[in-house]
Amino acid sequence: MDSKRKVTISWSGGKDSAFALYKILTSGEYHVVDLHTTLNEETRRVGLHGVHEVLIEQQAAGLGLPLTKLYLPPSEDHDAYEKLMITYYKQCARRGVEQVVFGDIFLEDLRLFRENLLQNTPLSSVYPLWKIDTQKLLNDFIAIGFKTVICSADADKFSQDQVGHTIDTAFAESLRPGVDPCGENGEYHTLVYDGPIFKKPLPFKTGEVVKKQYSFQKKNAQGESERVEKSFWFQDLLPRIA
């Protein structure tokens, strides 16, 4: 009888979720039932990563793991997101899944949000990267042999020519002051295309780079909600036949 705990991995396709998966797999304590990814139902892309679902599908195939795709309406409807995730988590529980694995590192408010969601389900959470120094995480990620490309980045903190490049030690050393090494504050996002947990690398090619403007609500130092305008560079990543 398999005594390993069954888990589902919250999957963006980026380095933090990949490193969390790596730690779960190498621990020997868990059985990964699937990866689950939320996608915009119109664009078929992953949130602020901007990665198309075809690449996420191919990535999961390269990892040899099942993928569950969850589609969100394009509107900023938090209720729709919460309903979608709670429904999915309850489905997971019926399949014997016990825990959800997240790649969050230090954002307390995000963790609290996830915990509040899970209170409505039979599942609990696992955070393999929690409170680990982000410079150490990035250095270890590179040293272990993961390869990840920058797919989007805050235009206030990164230049256009930085997106589309693979993260290496030179990148880690060139970050501007105040930028978290792992981009935990949303400074940049990535797509992992190879590494020690891949059975085969993810083939892709780069398309155009576009700049997009976003506005969203954020709490200020006084705890008041205010609208913030941000611009991001997006490197379009395209499937390529291996």
Automatic annotation (TrEMBL):
Residues 6-208 form the Diphthamide synthase domain. InterPro entries: Diphthami_syn_dom, Rossmann-like_a/b/a_fold. SUPFAM superfamilies: Adenine nucleotide alpha hydrolases-like. Gene3D superfamilies: HUPs, putative n-type atp pyrophosphatase, domain 2. Pfam families: Diphthami_syn_2. NCBIfam families: MJ0570_dom. This is MJ0570-related uncharacterized domain-containing protein. It comes from Chryseolinea serpens.
